[in-house]
Amino acid sequence: MKRAFFATLTMLSTSAMAEQPLFHHLATLEYKEIIYGCQMYRLNTPEGSTLLFGHNFNDTGPNAEGSASAGRIEMYSAMYSDPKYRSYSLRGTNELYQPSGNDSYTFMDISVGASSSPDNFMLSQVKNIERAIPYTSGNTQLSMHFYDERDQPTYGKPLPKYLSLCGNSIASFDALTSNRLRINAASHNVTYIKVQYPKFDQPSGFKTSNDLVGEVQLFWNNTDNSAITTRQHKFTRISRAEKLDKPQDQKFVELAKLGINDDRYIDINTDQNPLIPGKEYVYQVQYCDGYDFCDSNTLNAIGKSN
Questions:
Q1: Are 112 and 122 contacting, i.e. CB atoms less than 8 angstroms apart?
Q2: Residue 263 above 60 pLDDT?
Q3: Which of 89, 91, 110 is nearest to 168 (CA)?
Q4: I need a labelling partner for 68 at 20 to 30 A (CA). Which of 115, 117, 239, 274 fits?
Q5: How far is Cα 113 from Cα 173, in angstroms, rounded to an integer?
Q6: What CA–CA distance (Å, rounded) separates 51 from 159?
């Protein structure tokens, strides 16, 4: 027997018109691949998110938040004394297969003096991104361009989808040289950028039911988020997990992605996600944006397959 769900689309137009509060998110990096000699990193950030503003990233003073509050980047370096590896830049782009050019904003740059070896120890450290004064050791310099001396962001536009680490004079990276310089994107505890973004107003009236033949159905009312101009509600993600005594142990699996006006029946009982008769399942509905970032919420409903 198939199991299916259905979403009722009752558009609500008032809640999103109010002033949207800003939420914080730790945007992490995910290494993708080398494109045209550049290391490409996916920035896990909501669409329309920006760097923090109005903050005090000092360790002391009124409302001090600490020097790591804005974010940190951990680098690994093993460039040795090869004269080709002199200069690198970390720039933004919205296309994976189009690394950013010289006209793109530079978030970080590294330079090594022509007559000196790179200071690999200095580069292979965790750096706070809010720092406006360059990190230097000998003729090796690493400069952050996220914030100025007053802790205000020097980049005020929405953050891009990707960051590309490229050499400024040659195609820097290939299969043999990819580890000479890199960002530790695997450790989300030390490499992250704190951002702020408007959160979508969430759907309402979420519930489950069973029809006459025992099919599980989901119902909810969609909320209109068109008033948020920097972020678009592109699709709605439906997920399911087996209901457990400890909610933190529940592992949600994506069942489907719906367009914002999609009200069709969708089969959710497949070989990859089989429903076991008699078991209870927790369903989630999440709004997602153009960066494939889905807002978290506490909107859950219990469904039982009969």
A1: no
A2: yes
A3: 89
A4: 117
A5: 20
A6: 8
